[in-house]
Amino acid sequence: MKFEDAVCIVTGAGTGTGAACAIQLAKKGSRVVVNYSRSEQEARDVVEKCIAAGGDALLAKGNVAEDSDCRALAQAALDKWGRIDALINNAGITKFANAADLDALDAEDFQSLYSVNVIGAYQMTRACAPAMKKQGVASIVNISSISGVRGVGSSTAYIASKGALNAMTLALARALAPEIRVNAVCPGLIDTRWHSARFNAEDYEKFKARYEKTVPLAKSASPDDVAEVALWLLEGAALVTGETILVDGGLHLGK
User: Fold this and answer.
1) Mean per-residue pLDDT for 42-67?
2) Checking CA distances to 51, which of 20, 24, 171, 233 falls within 20 to 30 Å?
3) Could you tell me the pTM of the whole model?
């Protein structure tokens, strides 16, 4: 697919990686559905940046855990532009819990994380797939995590949800071919408020420094770093499907 005049839906696009994806898409001439569930003002700012960058954008509130919201997001794109070329399933949540403390999570925690991180991505894919297939060439990118590959992360529930998202990426890549390619991006630490909100400024810098000493490339990712890979998978990777691309500074290699 080509970005010029393409219609792309980005879930969780009000902040962080989702916002970076939306703005980079707009810079390339795409028309973008900027989805949010809570970060309304931030999402409005992203829409303005998309338009200023030369693209077009539509603000769309919706909780991907609700199938009716997913169908409404797809329909909003069709009502405004008549097509859907790409979907970035970025919306995600976590609960921070020590994996060694088995009482730190309950069934409700798992259900909450799966409802957004896995079921939400599935429901968005299902809502968009018919219109995307009509395009003949379309692409989906799931923003996953190195947690789903290495088995470490903010909590066992989060790790499990991202492992499930990676497995689902494989299944959907088979099911939706040849018209739709489906891939996943698995970042390590991304320098966003996801982690910084856990700490005061000094402790966050220490946390980030420890991470960067661990990874071979000695660098955490910015939202733009992850967005660049996601956009490459959308446009430039015509024969790539069913892949999980690790964007972790080499964390998976060990050091």
Assistant:
1) 97
2) 233
3) 0.95
